[in-house]
Amino acid sequence: MALHRTHRGDAEPFDDVYALPISEHALPKYRMPQRVSDARAVRALIHDELTLDGNAAQNLATFCTTWAEPEVHALMDECLDKNMIDKDEYPQTAEIENRCVHMLADLWNSPQGTSTVGCSTTGSSEAGMLGGLALKWRWRERRRAEGKSTDRPNLVAGPVQVCWEKFARYFDVELRQVPLEKGASGLRAHQLRDHVDENTIGVVAILGVTYTCVYEPVAEIAAELDRIQQDSGLDIPLHIDAASGGFVAPFLQPDLEWDFRLPRVASINASGHKYGMAPLGVGWVVWRSADLLPEDLVFRVDYLGGDMPTFALNFSRPGGEVVAQYYNLLRLGREGYAKVHGACADSAGMLARKLAGMGPFTVLHDGQGGLPGVSWTLTDPATTPFTLYDLSDQLRRRGWQVPAYPLPAGRQDTVVARVLVRHGIGYDKVALLADDIRAAVARLTEAPGPHVTEQPSFHH
Ligand SMILES: *Cc1c(COP(=O)(O)O)cnc(C)c1O
Q: Does any ligand 1 atom lie closer than 6 A to the CB of residue 130?
């Protein structure tokens, strides 16, 4: 008998993962197989497919966490079985969620940090929707009490992330997106008056506009809403979409007033899995005070014999991300967050200076006073022999994922490129990127080829 066919007990004599039956064909795509397969082989084959994805360490398009400390990996593994909704079975995970809510409320200067309400979510999208629902419910209660119609609610915002378009469509609210003014990359306070009315459930201001990384002028927006109230009696609450900025501004711009220090701010959402540095799958929403969350949005689940209020779109949800968020808050403290994000802002500043020195570019945001990222545009697209889509395409050949896309309504003819610098994207890597941009510009200038005119949008 050939040696490779001899069996020792039930064990395969030769178990190289690339020579097992499952490895002999392309992996099934439409029907699940009938037979069981070797765990190591399946794992190896799926691993190999995953290597065809873009390299997350070179993905400069995403705001989300792509690197975590080994301790986070260990905790995530330990929490594989934690279900966020099972408050009774996993009371300590529920307690940890509460601690995070209170720490964030405090970080965002809530007047009632220890008693305010909030919760974890799957991300800022769910968190924003919960904030939006509370706005809608409060507006409707108020209107009903006044005997007025409640069938045409609207929400006013600048160029928002797609989650607000979803909120509006899913929950029957008209989204009034204020077009960008020339030279602006977000909502400007003086634009509000033309868009709000008695059916406005709230205004959303964005701390860290996705397109450009700048902060909208939240304090000015709040002050304008104060003036509108004085003039017209309309008392319009403000929700802050601080998906990215909520975990940046408290550390890098502590004096910037954008949070509960402004009395008009009713609620704030942020993504734990962006600059909160938790792994993917956690966001947060916090209300200024418990009375701003209408009771009939809250469901009660059993909790240690008592009941625990919950407000969420999901039921079962993993607990590991919440635990990892708590780890980050404890591990880094305010000092650590300031150091990590400060280093990112410094690297962004370096990239912005280099870009500005290359010739064809105008920097829109240099990583200072906003998110640690850089956005830029072509100074004169008409006379430049390439587009930012060409540049993005060239960089992709070296593995860099740098998106190019048009600005939203009002400035659609302006195309921008954007790089996000976050934990795990070090100074050296950003310097290497700058070298590659310089080389790409030289290539594109010497041999302008057929141009790339658009790109699948991967900037959200
Ligand atoms: C990323 C982002 C969102 C959506 O957040 P997720 O956590 O990805 O759901 C909403 N608003 C802004 C401003 C964002 O940057």
A: no
Task: In whole angstroms, give the CA distance from residue 224 to residue 156.
Answer: 13
Q: Where are the alpha helices (DSSP H) in 161-248?
A: 162-170, 218-232
Residue 317 vs residues 130, 272, 314: alpha-carbon distances, Å: 16, 15, 7
β-strand partners of 176: 156
Q: Is the CB of 63 under 6 A from ligand 1?
A: yes
Which residues, at least 6 apart from 359, have a Cβ–Cβ distance to it below 8 Å?
A: 441
pLDDT tens digits along 309-354: 789 999 999 999 999 999 999 999 999 999 999 999 999 999 999 9
C-alpha to C-alpha distance for 352 and 368, rounded to whole angstroms = 10
Residue 290's φ and ψ, nearest 5 degrees, are: -60, -30
Residue 332 tokens read as 């880094």
Using CB atoms within 10 Å of the CB of residue 225, give its burial: 0 to 12 exposed, 13 to 18 middle, 19+ buried.
buried
Expressed in angstroms and rounded, the spacing between residue 280 Cα and the centre of ligand 1 is 12
How many angstroms separate the CA atoms of 433 and 394, rounded? 12
Could you tell me what percentage of the chain is helix, strand and coil, using 3-state DSSP and rounding each to the nearest 5?
40, 15, 45
Q: How far apart are CA 265 and CA 267, in angstroms?
A: 6
DSSP string covering 66-133: ----HHHHHHHHHTTT-BTT-TTT-HHHHHHHHHHHHHHHHHTT-TTTTT--EEEESSHHHHHHHHHH
- Under 8 Å between Cβ of 225 and 197: no
pLDDT tens digits for range 378-434: 999 999 999 999 999 999 999 999 999 999 989 999 999 999 999 999 999 999 999
- The answer, yes or no, to whether residue 372 has pLDDT greater than 90, is yes
Q: How many CB atoms lie within 10 A of CB 223?
A: 14
CA of 422 to the centre of ligand 1 (A): 15
User: What's the CA gap between 200 and 165, in Å, rounded?
Assistant: 15
User: Which atom of ligand 1 is the closest one to the Cα of 283?
Assistant: 7
Within 8 A by CB and 6+ apart from 25, the residues are none
Set out the domains of the chain in order of their start, with CATH numbers. 1-53 (no CATH), 74-328 (3.40.640.10), 341-446 (3.90.1150.160)
In terms of Cβ atoms closer than 10 Å to its own Cβ (0-12, 13-18, 19+), residue 150 is middle
Residue 119 tokens read as 């919760």
Atom of ligand 1 nearest to the CA of 127: 9
